Amino acid sequence: MAVETMTRRASDNAYLHRDFHGALSTGLAYLESRHGPEAVRAYVTHFARTYYAPLTHAIRDKGLGVLRDRLETVYAQEGGRIRISFTEDEMLLEVEECPAVMHMRRAGYAVAPLFFETSRTLYEAILDGTPYASEWLRHEPETGRCAVRFFRRTS
Question: What sign for the dihedral angle of Cα 136, 32, 99, 60?
C-alpha cells in the first residue's frame, strides 16, 4: 500500500476559531461567579488594552476608518452579517446576529450572562486614549443582535 504525505500550514486553512468563544464564555462565567461582574470587565479591559494596543494607536493616528476596516474583516471571517454607516466623525455598527453567540447556542454551550462585555468593554478599552467613544443603542442577549454608535468625543 502506497503512503501519501500531505504538507499543510495553518495559513492554508480558512480562519476559524468559533469554539474559542465557548471557552471564553465559560471562563467569563467562572470569573463572574467567583469574583463578580467587575472582575469580568477588568479582565476584558486588561486584555483589550494589551492585545489591541496597535489597533488603538492606529485609530488614534488615522481615525475611525481603521476600526471600520477591522470590524468588516472580523465579521467577514466569522460569517457575520453587519451594516456599517460611516463618516469621519461617526460610525454606526449594526450586527444582525453575533456569530459567536449563535455558534454557542447551536453547539449547546452556555452563553455567559456577561458575554456581551467582550464587545462593550472591549470597544471602550480599544477607544481609550483616542478621540472616539462608543455607546450601545441596542443589544439582544439571545442572538447578540446589536447596534453600536462610535463617535468623536466633544471634549
Answer: positive
Q: What is the pLDDT of residues 94-124, one digit of tens each?
A: 999 999 999 999 999 899 999 999 999 999 9
Distance CA 139, CA 142 (A): 9
Q: Nearest CA to 92 among 83, 101, 100? A: 83
In this prediction, residue 9 has a pLDDT band, given cuts at 50, 70 and 90, of confident
- Angle subtended at Cα 111 by Cα 15 and Cα 138, rounded to the nearest 5 degrees: 90
**Of the options 3.10.10, 2.60.40, 3.30.1380, 2.40.10, the CATH number for the domain spanning 18-152:** 3.30.1380
